[in-house]
Amino acid sequence: MSTALPTLPATPRLAALRCWMQGRRVYLEINERRSISFPTSKYDKLAYASQVELEKISLHDEGRKVQWENLDEVIQVEDVANNRFFHTAKIAAGKGA
Question: I want to staple 63 with a disulfide (CB 3.0 to 4.6 A). Which of 2, 3, 15, 56 is the partner?
Fold first, then answer.
């Protein structure tokens, strides 16, 4: 008799609908009722970037990543939503995103 547990469908990774800068803070709209934000001081490259450089923010990988190509900074939306702040190099994150 088999005692295998049923497999549950994978939970989709969190994605943002849009992203923007307001001063030295990054904002991510997750859905109509939820937005998250974090200060640029959480990441060294963002903390020392000019406002002009920060404004070159974009979403990649169907909204799952926030990227600043000019700063070589890629941030997973799911990490930010769970208060995990660490740098992901573009190469490690996959340039095809």
Answer: 15
